[in-house]
Automatic annotation (TrEMBL):
<dbReference type="Pfam" id="PF26481">
    <property type="entry name" value="DUF8154"/>
</dbReference>
<protein>
    <recommendedName>
        <fullName>DUF8154 domain-containing protein</fullName>
    </recommendedName>
</protein>
<feature type="domain" description="DUF8154">
    <location>
        <begin position="5"/>
        <end position="163"/>
    </location>
</feature>
<dbReference type="InterPro" id="IPR058467">
    <property type="entry name" value="DUF8154"/>
</dbReference>
Length: 166
């Protein structure tokens, strides 16, 4: 039996309404007006969340949050340096990685390996039969932390970072 609108209509309406209306309590640290800092702080929040999730044994979500943090960190740099119009969102999750290579922020070899890692493992872990493990989650978390720290140090915006990392 399929799920019908009647099964979820009140909850769906509440969700639609919540996204339409402003004046709500925003997530801590995201109350900034610049698009690049929004991306940076979302990356920080993803890392902080991933640290908590791995300790709780939620490895699938840790892997997802680590990939998201890498994407947001590169997007922060792209916007900061004027290589990405924040009003024109990327068309895929790997756009920030590949765009960072196109403009010379990261090498093409690094972009290729990160892109491969995303396509072959993130999708496998999240959508298909790949199983998240503690080891995979921890290595992805370390990778995301290194990308984030290196990027914020390069642009000298570490003081804007709101990470609570290991």
């Amino acid at each position: 039996m399929p799920i019908t609108l009647d099964d979820i209509e009140p909850a769906l309406t509440d969700a639609e309404t919540a996204f339409r209306h402003g004046g709500q309590i925003s997530e801590d640290g995201l109350d900034v007006s610049s698009a690049e800092l929004v991306q940076l702080r979302k990356a920080c929040r993803s890392l902080s969340g991933a640290n908590q999730l791995v300790d709780a044994g939620y490895y699938t979500l840790t892997v997802e949050a680590a990939f998201t943090s890498i994407e947001k960190t590169f997007m922060f740099w792209l916007i900061e340096e004027g290589h990405q119009d924040p009003s024109n969102p990327p068309q895929s999750h790997t756009t920030a990685i590949n765009r960072s290579a196109e403009v010379g922020f990261i090498s093409t070899e690094l972009a290729s390996r990160l892109d491969d890692l995303w396509r072959e493992n993130r999708a496998q872990t999240y959508y298909q039969d790949g199983k998240a493990t503690r080891e995979r989650a921890l290595t992805m978390l370390e990778l995301a932390n290194r990308v984030h720290r290196r990027c914020t140090n390069i642009v000298r915006r570490r003081h804007e970072c709101r990470c609570r990392t290991r």
